[in-house]
Amino acid sequence: MTLRAALAILRKDLAIELRTRQSVPAMVLFSVTVFVLFHFGLDRDELDGPLASGVLWVTLLLATVLAVNRLFASEREDGALEGILLAPIDRTSVYLAKAAALFLYLVVFELVALPAFAILLLGPNLLDAFPALLAILLLADVGLAALGALVAGLAAETRARDLIVPLLLLPLLVPLLISAAKASQPLLALQPRAHELGKWLGFLALYDLVFVLLAVAVFDFLLED
Amino acid sequence: MSEAAIALAGLERNYGERAALSDVTLELAPGQTLGVFGPNGAGKTTLLRVLAGLLRPHGGEVRVLGEDLPRAAWKVRGRVGYLGHQSLLYTDLTVRENLLFHARLHRVAHARVDEAIAAVGLERRARDVLSELSRGMVQRAAVARATLHDPALLLLDEPRANLDPAAAEALEPLIGRASGRTRVLVSHDVERGLAETDVALGLRGGRQAFAGRADVAQVRELYAR
Q1: What is the CATH number of the domain that holds B1?
Q2: Closest by Cα among B199, B225, B197 to B211
Q3: A213 vs chain B: nearest CA distance in angstroms?
């Protein structure tokens, strides 16, 4: 029943995003703009190693904030969230749907943002790093979606949500940023080095697990009056 | 004797320090209509939202359709149709998409969606997004949403607002006395509201002025003072 309701909400969210094109295009435009700013700000045509990894992940995280801010936007119009709350469903299904929607937005966004990063800033060939980078991205996306949907739910009914989302989300994303950036550094280096990819993937998986469990446990209460 | 559809005993509800409802006590039998009267800020909408399970009572006892609120609110959801000041619909979805979404949440057969659209006379606009409809048409779509799952209890906050006389007449079988449902009706049309009412509740500043039978003069006094 929870899954069925979650699928209904996810389907509705995707229909609205396809029609309004508000979240994913904004994330793409934002990230491309930031890459261009770094390109000129650092006065470098090519980045590699820790700097490339840091620029990439900080940009992805900041772009995620835009999507998190918009995650409950359609629910705020004409009281649509109350329409969901009046239905005989487990409210965890709202969280699952929002997290799944955010995950899908991130995947689609990265399909454009990563090539843009490779063209505008990256020195080494992205294709060489891609298989391992894909694993890092997918695990990081699960964490971003898990925490992002939780924070979006927390801020959904507050007036200062535009402030609350980044102030709450970004500090909590620091462990994810460290793990993802550390895992990506050797992959984006000009000279490939031995590295502890497994360790950092393990950290990311643990982070994902903690925030999925935490969110499932508390989300019901967030939507309570 | 059948159990009361609504039984309130000393209901209290606050917003911060301010009491929005204070010591409200009444009973309503199944199939009856409770008319709620009072000036702006009297607590009428708050009462409806408590009965819908959207707000938690802060004191007293609230029993709706045989279930105690807020403890068993999840059992009441899905048996209540709520028609408030907002449509609780998505402005970027069509009428049909909105109702299909609610049908999925309430596990109602999809065929029922077309019946509901026909019942509110929106067949020709069913594939238009809500933002393109007039306020009256949105209200008709909201009526379809509130009655889609055949609720036992209707909570109606000025349900005829924005409706032309013909539309209001056409919706009577769904939300009027003819629906045969237990209803809680908030109305500023004193004569018409009283004519539809079995039990009248007068509220002023969140306090119960009267509960039971009432005449026009008694209700008008609420607004005059």
Answers
A1: 3.40.50.300
A2: B199
A3: 22
